[in-house]
Amino acid sequence: MKKNYYAENLNSQKLYQVYETSLLRIRQYLEAEIEFVRTRLSGRERVLELGAGYGRIVRELAPFCASIVGVDISEENVKLGKRYLKNFPNADMVTMDVHDMSFDCQFDVVLCLQNGLSAMKADDKVVRTIIGLLAPGGAAYFSSYSAKFWDFRLKWFEEQASKGLLGAIDPEKTKDGVIVCADGFKAATHTPDDFERIGAASGFPYQVTEVDDSSVFLIIHKTS
Ligand SMILES: C[S@@+](CC[C@H](N)C(=O)[O-])C[C@H]1O[C@@H](n2cnc3c(N)ncnc32)[C@H](O)[C@@H]1O
Asked: Which intervals hold domain Methyltransferase (predicted)?
């Protein structure tokens, strides 16, 4: 499996610390993303989350769906995730690279949240695989950051750098939706236009919508 920054540096307890933020606006953003999906679940769905980390979102959504599986490239995340989810019998974690996924079942909902496409450097081929994993009538949810949220996002990454979770932020290169750190970490953004392009290329009905002035969602509905 190909290694990347998350698999090698920012996993398990360190990733957990990323989300243990003292910034209230960031906590609101994280909750709003989950709430957006939660209110669209009926309780009957088989859900797959890609780039699921240690299962933060999986645990929040498990009571609202039939089953949920989180996929992550980092074995350390999956190990922590299995402990984190031990009281949620309908939830599980598996180690897998989104660039090389295989499942012997389909899903009603596939999630790729918290700027997941950028974090996983996922291209159009991955998006096509995701749509292939959906059962007819299913939906894929992708989210990235709203441009309106840049200052808060930056503060959150500064907090992560100050906790030693990331290298120092490079102030010259950090701009236009891209955060660059001295240790090689780089986080980009999918803009609403990027999401429009991905949605149109899917050939299925889709929506691009802003949530909480903090994130932008693309939802693709696999109608048949
Ligand atoms: C920004 S974190 C988000 C974690 C989780 N979705 C959350 O919001 O709590 C991105 C995650 O994607 C995972 N990841 C990165 N590249 C991946 C890949 N190629 N395949 C699967 N997971 C990947 C990382 O290990 C990391 O856990």
From this structure: 47-138
Q: Please state which CATH class domain 5-15+24-148+191-221 belongs to.
A: alpha beta
**pTM of the full predicted structure?**
0.96
In this structure, the residues whose C-beta lies within 6 A of any atom of ligand 1 are: 4, 6-7, 11, 15, 19, 51-53, 56-57, 71-74, 77, 97-99, 113-114, 116, 119-120
Q: Ligand 1 centre from 40 Cα, in Å?
A: 23
Distances (CA, A) of 1 to 68, 73, 97, 102, 192: 23, 8, 7, 14, 31
Closest-CA residue, ligand 1 atom 13, reads 51
Domain ranges of the chain: 5-15+24-148+191-221
Name the CA radius of gyration of the chain, rounded. Answer: 16
Name the residue of 2, 73, 97, 157 whose CB sits within 8 Å of the most ligand 1 atoms, as the mutation to test its pocket.
73
Per residue in 36-94, pLDDT tens?
A: 999 999 999 999 999 999 999 999 999 999 999 999 999 999 999 999 999 999 999 99
Residue 15: count of CB within 10 angstroms of its CB = 21
